[in-house]
Each structure stands twice: as structure tokens, then as C-alpha cells.
Amino acid sequence: MALKKFKPTTSSQRFKVISAFDDITASKPEKSLVAPIKKSGGRNNQGRMTIRYRGGGHKQAYRIIDFKREKEGVPARVKTIEYDPNRTARIALVAYADGEKRYIIAPNGLKVGQEINAGKGVSPDLGNSLYLSEIPYGTIIHNTELRPGQGAKMARSAGSYAQLMSRDGKYAVLKLPSGETRMILQTCKATIGMVSNIDHSLEVGGKAGRTRWLGRRPRTRPVVMNPVDHPMGGGEGRATGGHPRSRKGVPAKGYKTRSKKKASSKYIIERKKK
Q1: Same domain, residue pair 226 and 100
Q2: Residue 197, Cα to own-chain centre: how many angstroms?
Q3: Are residues 196 and 237 in the same domain?
Q4: Does some domain include residue 212?
Q5: In terms of domains, do 165 and 235 share one?
Q6: Which of 14, 40, 66, 72 has the highest Cβ tally under 10 A?
Q7: How many helices (H) and strands (E) does the chain have?
Q8: CA atoms of 265 and 219, how far apart (whole Å)
Q9: Which residue in 31, 18, 26 sits closest to 214, CA to CA?
């Protein structure tokens, strides 16, 4: 994965740093695995804007991703590595031995022609999906399930990964991308390796238009609003706005919003770092 820097021939090119897309091997998606997306523009079913700063953006088609990897015991071969406009990671088109094709999140280092597998008794090689009970300690994993058969929920974005630390009874202890350490049932699945496109966080758009292509509109700073619009608004001249808080008055920094009665708290060994 490489980045591409541009010469400052225009003001928008001056700080522009984007992906070189040298890992992409196909320009068009598999038609059978594509679904349409209807953009809401932040409007609800009555047409009223309920989420601000959304709208526009390039037309996109959704790629149907296999997060469950329930096709066990059937080997698959990687056909292409593709760009997905709906996520930061790359996706891989895999063809199973029985002829079926599916998209998966491509781990970093996955190559075209490589064979992958899923299920019990599978070797812990890159791209293989295993149960946490069979993965060696210290292994870097991604696409981890929270509940058995639910499908991958954690460590799915570009460059993210979790690490299997130990096992305790029927649970496996994982260190998550946030730094949180928690217990997950050993009957949950995870995929070996780190998610691809690891340099995504180093990309710089260079101009406001690239953000508009993603469907995001300009965001108004709360401190320049009126008091009727935001708790941080108002004041004479350039006021600081006081303590950072949301539009509904919830403090933004250091304030814990997690419910003390949340059922999953008993599985968290160490909370995420601030």
C-alpha cells in the first residue's frame, strides 16, 4: 500500500496525499454482488432534516460483504482486490470451489491467486477464518464476532486489528483497537491478519470538494451560532463558547456516557485508554 503526493501546481494540489491504488486489480465490481443505495441526505421518512451536514456526494453502489464466513470446509481462491466506496478497507472477490463468489474484507498482504479457508481445523494463515478457541496466543486478527454466528462487528476498518491475549474458561481475552481488553466467547469467529489499506489515516484531501464527494456538507462551528441554536453560541464579540458540549448540552470531553447498568460491562476487563 503506497501513498501518492502531488506537486503544488494548484492550491488544492499543495497538500494532497491520496492512495496510489497500486493494490487494486479490478476496476468494476462483480454484478451479482452489487446492490443499490438510496441516499437520505439526512432526511427522515417525512422529508425533514434530522441529521445535519449530510447531502450530495457521488453516486455509489453497495458491495455485499460476507462478514459471517459460514461457508466452512470449502476452499476459496482470491480473484481480485477491489476498491469499495462504502468503507476505508479494500475488499477481495473470492471464488469458492463450488463456483460461488463472495466479497470479503481484504487483509493486508492478501494476494490474487491465494487460497483461503474457514471453519474448524483450518491453519491460522492470512485470510483464514477460525474460531477463537483454535487461534494461537498473540495472533493479530480482525473481523471479530461479538456473538457466535452474528457476523464480524469489530476491527473492520482500514489498518485496524485486535490481538488474542489469553483464554479464560469459555471466553477468549482480546485486546481491541481502542486499547480495551474484553472477553468474547471462544465459539466466535475471527479472521487472521490486519485489515488492508493501512495508510488510510495519512491521506489528505487537499480541498473541500473531496469531502463533498463523500456526501458531507460544510459544518458550522457551534461557537459562531446563536444561543437559540447551540449551548456554546452567543456572547459579545468572539466568545470562547465555554465548556465543549453537544447541541443537547452533553459535555464533549471527559464526560462518561456509558450506562453503569449495561449488560456487556461484565465482559470488559480494562476500559479503553483516553
Answers
A1: no
A2: 11
A3: no
A4: no
A5: no
A6: 66
A7: 1, 17
A8: 34
A9: 18
Does 209 fall in a domain? no
For the segment 226-254, what is each residue's pLDDT rounded down to a tens digit?
Answer: 999 999 999 999 999 999 999 999 999 98
Judge if 228 and 196 occupy the same domain. no
**CA 60/CA 74 separation, integer angstroms:** 31
Amino acid at position 213, single letter: W
As a dihedral over the C-alpha atoms of residue 53, residue 55, residue 56, residue 58, rounded to 10 degrees, the angle is 90
Question: C-alpha grid cell for residue 94?
Answer: 473470492
One domain for residues 180 and 242: no
Contact (CB, 8 A) for 153 and 141: no
Per-residue pLDDT, 219: 96
- Residues in the chain, how many? 274
Q: Which residue's C-alpha cell is 456473538? A: 147
Domain with 86 in it: 3-41+54-201
pLDDT of residue 1: 65
Q: What is the pTM of this model?
A: 0.92
Is the per-residue pLDDT at 113 higher than 90?
Answer: yes
Task: Tell me how many domains the chain contains.
Answer: 2
What SS3 class is residue 161? Answer: coil
